[in-house]
Design goal:
Strand order of the largest sheet of chain A: 9-8-10-13-12-11
Shape of chain A: globular
Mean pLDDT of chain A: 97
Order of helices and strands of chain A: EHEEEEHEHEHEHHEEHEHEEH
Helix content of chain A: 25-40%
Oligomer: homodimer
Structural class of chain A: alpha/beta
Radius of gyration of chain A: 20 Å
Distance between the termini of chain A: 16 Å
Number of strands of chain A: 13
């Protein structure tokens, strides 16, 4: 298996290398790419050293798969070159997520969608992955059409730059924000992405638009409020879904806990608990007091891992497993 | 006007002194009380020094009003002594908020309720005050019966101890939490107060129970998720209310901005913006995508001020103004 990784020097790219080892993916050839700034730097993978290159038109020739952890702009630049090479591209950017012939995949929820690809598979938004992992199990007990979500998003969502900005602000009260639109230390910012015509942000609309595609649920309606919080690397989401029937709470906890990649906890989970591992934790499942069919829950997951790198590597693993079985 | 303050050495008690000056309340006699730890310490009010006493049965005799910023337990201990003295007690604790003959007052919303007191007026929960200030104006455009709220609550909600704990954790990564049930630095904790039989916390149920009483709305249903965040002194709340009609968004913004003590901002407000002043800021009013009658908004207010001290002093001012007019 010959693999390329673009954006390997970022938080998600680095995490992808670890996830490949953890998910027991055998890599026969590895090529690692990043921006000019990182050209020539060495990275370690499975105790072997690799030199970071800057990709050009022929860099992907001969590869089977490419994992991408780059901006929308760079993803659009590289995709024609990857396509030409015949490799399958698993893209963490949002550049192609809405395209009809591009599957958008959380392996535990809709892994089979990845098989019907045209060489390009999109990795969903981080908050969307973590929220859907928490609520998709409930579909075993009934349908839902309506969700209200408020997110508590870690600074890692803006990559290593976001983590550095929070650290800089904590260490120097005169530091002026560069990455986030407001100071994030001792603050919360209900503005992630750009404002759209309906006054929601681009980040907020991903929860509805990507949720519809992943769950095969074109009528799903979601009102989301996305909020950046001074937390390093795990997202938390306060969720309310309205089911089409009254769901027994113990049954709800059981199907959530039985879902691959998810764990229900009777005690509270916090983003610190959820950090540096791949499980999405759910707690506080309880009855909505405004609607007997409604359920509230609290979920936490590592943004860099399940919200990005380990989900992308999980898509790769799903493809490889299907090929071998 | 002869005034007593109990709990004067805490964050809210200290703020009450400042708010008395800011709200131009003339105090002819002041007695300040706190715990044994603070006995004999001096505080400054209007450039005059006062010595902190520990209250006993006769400490309140001859006073007209007492402002309380103490625990439920201490409030219950002091109330019979205050009652005996004939002073009117404005209590920031939650000890008496649910009692039928105790008005629960946000002056801008239901100030007139304060006039029908039996010597005791309760100051509401901090998140409840800030949320209701943001949504009460909408009642001018229609009724609402249903609310989903997720709070982002500052550490000041646990008093000076809470602020110290966050500072200690930021300065010493080995510090073990004493005030909050989990580490709060670089974390968020969806557990404030104690768990009730319905799996909501005591803090979460205040939003519904106190909201019903303040708005004179016994049918109001609220599903609340209360979350502590590493912010020093302002609360933020992500709110969704369902109106009984479709409300024009510009009309909504106008009635919010016109409400006494509230300001609507077209740009985002953050808890840092809202700190150290008394206005409740609202922004991001937008249409609920799951229900055309629904509205989403984001509001921020200083927890120590409007969430506690300045609201309590505002009740006192309301009583004094009514007396003089």
């Amino acid at each position: 298996m010959r693999l390329g990784i673009i954006g390997v020097s970022g938080a998600v790219g680095q995490q992808m290398l670890e996830c490949l080892v953890e998910q027991d993916i055998v890599v026969d050839e590895l090529r690692v790419f990043a921006s000019e700034k990182s050209r020539g730097k060495k990275i370690l993978f499975n105790n072997q050293e690799y030199t970071i290159q800057v990709a050009d038109e022929s860099s992907f020739d001969g590869l089977d798969y490419v994992l991408g952890a780059v901006s929308n702009e760079l993803s659009k630049k590289y995709w024609p070159w990857i396509k030409k090479s015949g490799a399958i591209y698993i893209d963490n950017s949002s550049a192609f997520r809405g395209d009809k012939d591009v599957p958008l995949v959380v392996p535990e929820i809709n892994g089979e969608d990845a098989l019907d690809n045209h060489g390009l598979i999109a990795n969903p938004n981080c908050s969307t992955i973590i929220t859907l992992m928490a609520i998709a199990p409930l579909l075993k007990l009934g349908d839902f059409n309506s969700m209200i979500a408020t997110t508590f998003q870690a600074v890692s969502g803006a990559g290593n730059k976001g983590i550095e900005e929070l650290n800089n602000e904590l260490n120097n009260c005169n530091y002026q924000p560069k990455v986030f639109p407001y100071t994030i230390a001792s603050n919360v910012i209900s503005e992630i992405g750009s404002y759209l015509d309906n006054d929601y942000t681009s980040e907020e609309m991903k929860m509805m638009n990507e949720g519809r595609k992943i769950l095969h649920h074109p009528d799903l309606r979601v009102s989301c409020t996305c909020v950046r919080v001074p937390v390093m690397r795990s997202h938390s989401i306060s969720v309310r879904v309205v089911m089409d029937r009254i769901v027994d709470l113990d049954e709800g906890k059981r199907v959530i806990n039985d879902f691959d990649g998810v764990e229900y906890r009777d005690e509270l989970v916090t983003p610190l608990d959820a950090s540096n591992q791949d499980i999405v934790y759910v707690s506080r499942l309880r009855r909505d007091l405004t609607n007997p069919n409604g359920l509230l829950l609290w979920c936490c997951g590592d943004q860099i891992r399940k919200g990005a790198a380990s989900n992308a590597v999980g898509i790769l693993k799903y493809l490889l497993d299907c090929k071998h079985n």
